[in-house]
Structure formats: C-alpha cells, structure tokens
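Figure 3 (text version): structure tokens given as input.
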C-alpha cells in the first residue's frame, strides 16, 4: 500500500537525518519504527508527508507516486499523519474538531455519513460531542486526533508516538484503536518509544539507527531479538 524507497530527508546544513530508508506497509497491517531519541523516526514521517526542506527518494501510495503532493493535499490522496505533538483544537468542541478533519470534503452528505461512521467507532467522542476538546483526557484527545483523520477515509495512517505521555490503560486503548483501523483494512505506520507494547500490536517493525534501517523483521522476532530488548526495552544482557 505504502512503498518507500531510498528516502532521504533533512533540515538543511548538509546533514541527512533520514539516510536512504526503504519501507513498506500493506493494507491491514501495523508496522512500527523504533529507535533511540534523535534516530530520525519523526523525520521519516515528516519527510514522507513532504514537510522537510530536504528530501529525495520514491514514495508510492497504492501505485501512485505521491512524492510531490503537498502536505495540504496528502489527505485527499489517502495519506494521514498524526504528529508527535498533540494537535486537537482545545477551544473547539469535539464535534467541531471532527468537522475540521473534513475541511477538504465539499460534499455535505458525505461529510455527515463519514462523521456518523467515525462517531460510531468512538462512542466516547459521540457522547461528549458538544464538550470542548480540552475537557478530554490525553488519551481521549489522541483518539480524537485519530478520529479526525478518519473523516477523510485515508488508506494509510501514520502515527508518531501515539502512546506518549499516556497512562498504561490509555496506551492499551490507543494501540487497540490502531489494531481496529488495521482490521478495517488501513495500513498503519507507527513510530513508538513504547517498544514492547507497540511491537505486540504490530505485524512488523524496523529498527532505525542514525537515519538508517539496521534491522527489519516480524514484530514477534524483534521482541525476541536480544539486541532489541537490550537497546530498546530496558532489558540487560
Ligand atoms: N525542525 C528541525 N530542524 C533541524 N533539526 C531537526 C528538526 N527536527 C529534528 N531535527 C534533528 O533531527 C534529528 C532527528 O530528529 P527526530 O525528531 O526525527 O528524531 P526521533 O527519532 O523522532 O526522536 P524522538 O524519539 O526524540 O522523538 C535530531 O538530531 C534533531 O535534532
Ligand atoms: Mg520523534
């Protein structure tokens, strides 16, 4: 579904932060990128989404070259991106936040259908639709961010650290939300520091070091990999 080849990305000054990354995410699967702080995980997502000043490589979504699509138009070609830093509009209601997710939809009936479908998937958001988004817990706000992108019915959803700062119970809810999306046929590309739980929710994973893929394997194999547990899961050899 999403095919990335030879991806290079950076912020200028001659240093490449993402240095030749190949990755694939198929419909129905969650693929997680792990790696230390500063490895370039967020930059991969930003580079795919055309948000870095320096970029090169091949980005193909469902057979279509999307390398030069502007970030503003990415949702219309089926790619959604939820950044690491929270992005709900706190002073808008939950319903208004969802409405913002459909700003590219001109068909009102379609907007209403999509909103109803998304609200069905997230009963908490439906029940509290007229409350300010600021009144939601951190985890609920994360769900609202995910729900908001679903209004455009993307094929691929990229999530940067969806579990960051959440209580363990909310972490589980967020990962099970990602699983539900995969089961609904979406391709999920996730970046996570919560390595074990993220891999447990994933089909496959990539280990990134200094902007390059060091290991690529099934999630179960990565969980069992001694290098991964020592470096990224706080387990001592
Ligand atoms: N806007 C920017 N301008 C310049 N350099 C940046 C910018 N954003 C990130 N960098 C640099 O790029 C490198 C990789 O950053 P990135 O945010 O991709 O890492 P990460 O793997 O997501 O880390 P973390 O786990 O801390 O989120 C870092 O050295 C960082 O300082
Ligand atoms: Mg990051």
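Below: residues designed for each position.
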């Amino acid at each position: 579904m999403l095919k990335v080849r030879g991806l290079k990305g950076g912020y200028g000054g001659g240093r490449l932060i993402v240095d030749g990354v190949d990755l694939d995410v198929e419909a129905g699967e969650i693929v997680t990128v792990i790696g230390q702080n500063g490895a370039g995980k967020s930059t991969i997502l930003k580079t795919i989404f055309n948000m870095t000043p320096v970029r090169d490589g091949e980005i193909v979504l469902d057979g279509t070259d999307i390398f030069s699509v502007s970030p503003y138009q990415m949702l219309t070609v089926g790619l959604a991106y939820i950044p690491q830093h929270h992005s709900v509009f706190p002073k808008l209601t939950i319903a208004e936040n969802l409405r913002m997710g459909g700003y590219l939809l001109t068909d009102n009936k379609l907007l209403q259908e999509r909103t109803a479908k998304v609200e069905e998937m997230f009963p908490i958001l439906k029940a509290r639709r007229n409350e300010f988004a600021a009144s939601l817990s951190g985890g609920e706000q994360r769900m609202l961010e995910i729900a908001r992108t679903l209004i455009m019915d993307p094929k691929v959803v990229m999530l940067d650290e969806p579990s960051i700062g959440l209580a363990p119970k909310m972490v589980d809810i967020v990962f099970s939300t990602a699983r539900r999306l995969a089961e609904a046929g979406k391709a999920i590309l996730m970046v996570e520091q919560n390595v074990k739980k993220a891999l447990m929710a994933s089909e496959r994973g990539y280990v990134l070091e200094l902007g390059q893929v060091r290991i690529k394997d099934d999630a179960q194999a990565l969980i069992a990999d001694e290098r991964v547990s020592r470096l990224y899961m706080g387990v001592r050899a």
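Residues 11, 17, 35, 37-43, 84, 193 surround adenosine-5'-triphosphate (ligand 1) (CB under 6 Å).
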